[in-house]
Amino acid sequence: MLYTILIIVLILVLIGALPRWGHSANWGYGPSGILGVILVVLLILVLMGKV
Question: Where are the bilayer-spanning segments (predicted)?
């Protein structure tokens, strides 16, 4: 159950990080950088067996 929720949240964040809309075109690398940090932390937690 936790993995399903985690995958759904990651997909939503990934869609939100794409600069497809006019108001988000000038955000730069902020959203994708945050997504990258979240994925790295999640990968470290999975490799350590915490998640």
Answer: 29-48
CA distance 49 to 26: 38
d(CA 8, CA 4): 6
- Is the pTM value of this prediction over 0.90? no
Residue-by-residue pLDDT tens, the chain, 51 positions:
777 877 787 777 777 766 666 666 677 667 677 777 887 888 888 888 876
Supply 48's token pair. Answer: 């350590």
- For tokens 């964040």, the residue is 13
Phi, psi of 46 (to 5 degrees): -65, -40
